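Hi, here's the filled form for the chain we discussed.

Project: internal
Contact: R.S.
Residues: 139
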Amino acid sequence: MSTKISFDLPDFSLVLKNATTQTMQEAGFKVEDEAKKAAPVDSGYYRNNIGFDGKNRVIANADYSADLEYGTKPHVIEPKTASALHFQSDGQDVFTKRVNHPGTKPLAIMRNAALKVQKQVGGMFYDNFRKDLKKYRVK
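And the returned structure, exactly as it came back:
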């Protein structure tokens, strides 16, 4: 006499979805953290305006974020509302109507942060997949 045995396999699509979602969350927060660590700090405004949206995007919201990321070409700076620009050079106050700025080199803060975390994503996904799969272990 034979007895049939059956059992349900885990819903692997759900395990994959959960592992992917968890990995995206971890990666997003890690990219945010790495970018904040690498961010130049003058006033802290740029660093404080880097954030993960909770889904799939890390955003630097400061109005000069692209200038820091990609650099700038040489350009002229003139006052918008005041009659002169004011800054210090060698400890001396300088007032002028125009500055020929030499441009800035790109810092690639966000790109470097994403590349650093990208190298870790495979391991993060593997760990999350194994952890979620344990919930469906056949007994």
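Let me know if anything looks off before we file it.
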